[in-house]
Write a structure and sequence with these properties.
With 714 residues, this protein is mostly helical. It has 29 helices and eight strands. Helix 23 packs antiparallel against helix 27. One of its GO terms (molecular function) is intracellularly phosphatidylinositol-3,5-bisphosphate-gated monatomic cation channel activity.
Length: 714
């Protein structure tokens, strides 16, 4: 009947508007049962369960063998880690697989078979599940003793396919690869040419004492290539040139030319190309998101215009205001946008909305989120009004910054004076006294600001919440210190009592005071611009962090499988002059014979080099240490691939997006008035809003007529 048809149209419009809000595709089934299933699938509860399942299956790697449940990561000192019995993690894994099977089944049903065969991500999803389940069965048949688990490497795919923005970002990266490959090829040519020059310059001579450069770095082609590749990362700089430089200063010209051409020109050229190309592809991706939003809103208009209550005498399609209000009440959307659209509808004098008016109403979704702070309290007393004016004035905040700076300076002075003193000679009276004074001032400042601004307005500012929270924590720590150790006095140096010693308590208080000094950031416009840029990246570029997590996870699991059992120290090592006397490696040979190789630092110099450069570059240290093992070639390929993906490509992508976000904020800083009562919140889509093109009505209608499940009347 007409009532059932109207209900169906209303439900279709609700789903289409929710699709537009979330930038989802509208190419799904639109019958009553499918719409109910669709809304249930995208409900917060269902998506929370799916996110929890993805988190659980990724976290299994931390408790699976080899387990990471230990306090220290040093294999020489940590106790044997707890390894779960066979079947425990496998049972959790099976539950996760069942959730994923349900997930892919619902997705496949909702989009229909025609769309399913066009969706490569869904087919890859099913293939990943089939391979993972097969590997799970093999694992149980071997009683969890198999050395290779393919499904562990495939786990990040479940995270990747669940995020539309991550898939768009990955598509953008894939489109950028050809341009990146040209510069990477140029880097390879640069590296190869200088490798040949190095082998000719530092060739072996009759004098073994003068061949240190050849012995250590340029003995053969693979070692020469590796040495210069690591020099490109500056990890072995200047060690790689020291033997040659000691022999003849002119050899430094070779290394200077290599570093200047490689690091200053080619690597920065790669950053420029990635920035230019990736920004264009990301812009296209955001343009497609805008098209999805406009298409969803137009689809909602079309189904609402087919309601029976629409006047037949209307010359063009229109939607009644009452029908739209009914849709808005049931649709899941931000309360700010919903209220703004409803206000616009109440201000509208007409009862029917055209397509242009309907679309314009939902442009509220594209606007910046504006947060207005609550008003300050209104005092009747003249004295309270003067107090409110004085302590609500910006100069009072500047005074607090000056006091915080004085606190930092006093802490620095005390630390410098006590740097060379023994613990028994240290007198904590002065530091305790000044901390007590400044904390009392911070408490007074917080209370006066609350008096002037009101509690709600005070808490509406992030800087005030940060300041107030640290002030309360400092006050609690100070009270706890006085309760345990008494008030500061000359010679205030009691013994350890309670959970923390006095010096630990004082250090904790001082660290929080130093951290509190960050409150000055909002008062410095340029610094605030930089910080808000970083915060926006953290909040809005979750897709990049997700893909980075995928890369880290895949390489970590691959590394565990490749190098498991390759390097195992037998007990603790003895130290001579703070350097290990020997380092013991254990290697499982192909015939399952455990060989023990003892590498004395006098012969191979592995440990002495790693001790000096461990913090500079762990990868090079591992490459150098693994060079004596049979898996050296695999190790080299693994670490070079990791460096290319994580450092060369991904860091440059992050720099490109950082630049784009910063330039966007820099260009907009003069376009808006600096209103203290308004905060603007930006998203990735809004970063490019000014340069996006609106789709035409013809494009929207053409796409709607291609909908596999929606039949339009016109």
């Amino acid at each position: 009947g007409a009532g059932a048809d109207n209900d169906l149209c209303i439900n279709q419009a609700i789903v289409f508007i929710e699709d537009a809000i979330q930038y989802r595709s509208i190419n799904h089934r639109v019958d009553s049962k499918s719409l109910w299933l669709y809304r249930w699938y995208y409900s917060k509860t269902c998506q929370w369960i799916l996110s929890l399942t993805i988190t659980v299956i990724l976290a299994l790697a931390f408790i699976e063998e080899p387990s990471s449940l230990s306090v220290t990561s040093d294999v020489r000192y940590r106790l044997p880690a707890w390894n779960p019995p066979c079947g425990l993690t496998e049972s959790l894994e099976l539950l996760c697989f069942l959730v994923f099977v349900l997930d892919v089944s619902v997705k496949s049903y909702l989009i229909g078979w025609k769309e399913f065969w066009k969706n490569k991500w869904l087919m890859a999803y099913i293939l990943t599940l089939i391979v993972s389940l097969a590997d799970w069965i093999v694992s149980l048949s071997f009683f969890c003793k198999e050395s290779v688990r393919i499904r562990r490497i495939l786990r990040p795919f479940f995270l990747l396919q669940n995020s539309s923005m991550m898939k768009k970002t990955l598509k953008s990266i894939n489109s950028t690869l050809p341009e990146m490959a040209s510069v990477v090829l140029l880097l390879a040519v640069h590296l190869s040419l200088f490798t040949m020059f190095a082998m000719l310059l530092f060739a072996r001579t009759k004098d073994n004492q003068q061949d240190k450069e050849w012995v250590v770095y340029f003995r053969n082609l693979p070692e020469s290539l590796t040495s210069l590749l690591v020099l490109l990362t500056t990890a072995n700089n200047p060690d790689v040139m020291i033997p040659a430089y000691s022999k003849n200063r002119a050899y430094s010209i070779f290394f200077i030319l290599f570093t200047v051409l490689g690091n200053l020109f080619l690597m920065n050229l790669l950053t420029a190309i990635i920035y230019n190309q990736f920004r264009g592809y990301l812009l296209k991706s955001v343009q497609s998101s805008l098209f999805r939003r406009r298409l969803g809103i137009r689809a909602a208009f079309e189904v609402l215009s087919s309601l029976k209550e629409t006047p037949a005498s209307a010359q063009q399609c229109c939607v009644s205001v009452g029908a739209l209000l009914q849709v808005l009440q049931k649709a899941e959307m931000d309360s700010r946008c919903k209220q703004a659209i409803m206000r616009s509808l109440k201000m509208c004098s007409c009862d029917q909305l055209s397509a242009a008016q309907f679309q314009k109403l939902f442009e509220e979704l594209d606007k910046d989120a504006i947060k207005q702070h609550p008003p300050s309290p209104e005092y009747q007393s003249r004295f309270m009004q003067k107090m409110q004016f004085a302590f609500g004035h910006p100069y009072f905040g500047y005074l607090g910054n000056v006091v915080a700076l004085a606190n930092i300076i006093s802490i620095c002075v005390v630390l410098v004076m006590d740097a060379d003193k023994q613990l028994s000679e240290r007198d904590d009276f002065f530091l305790g006294a000044i901390n007590c004074f400044f904390i009392l001032y911070y408490l007074l400042e917080m209370l006066l600001k609350i008096l002037a601004m009101g509690l709600k307005r005070y808490l509406s500012y992030p800087s005030n919440r940060f300041d107030g929270l640290l002030t309360v924590i400092l006050l609690i720590l100070e009270i706890a210190t006085f309760a345990v150790y008494g008030f500061p006095h000359p010679g205030w140096r009691p013994e350890f009592m309670g959970l923390l010693s006095l010096w630990d308590m004082v250090r904790l208080v001082n660290m929080l005071i130093v951290f509190r000094f960050l409150r000055i950031i909002p008062n410095m416009k340029f610094m605030a611009l930089v910080v808000t840029t970083l915060l926006d990246l953290v909040k809005n570029l979750r897709a990049f962090a997700g893909i980075l997590l995928v890369v880290f996870y895949a390489f970590a699991i691959t590394g565990i499988m490749l190098f498991k059992g390759a390097v195992v120290p037998l007990g603790n090592t003895r130290y001579i002059g703070n350097k290990p006397n020997a380092f013991v490696f254990s290697l499982w040979a192909p015939f399952s014979i455990k060989k023990v190789v003892v590498l004395y630092f006098k012969e191979k110099n592995v440990i002495s080099w790693c001790s000096a450069h461990f913090q500079a570059e762990v990868i090079y240290c591992l490459l150098y240490a693994l060079s004596v093992l049979l898996i050296y070639r695999w190790a080299k390929i693994y670490f070079v691939a990791w460096w290319l993906i994580s450092s060369v490509i991904w860091v440059n992508l992050f720099v490109a997006l950082l630049l784009e976000n910063f330039i966007h904020k820099w260009d907009r800083r003069c376009q808006r008035e600096s209103l203290s009562d308004i905060e603007y919140q930006r998203t990735v889509e809004l970063m490019f809003r000014d340069v996006l093109e609106e789709p035409t009505e013809e494009e929207l209608m053409e796409k709607l007529h291609q909908h596999p499940h929606l039949q339009l009347c016109r």
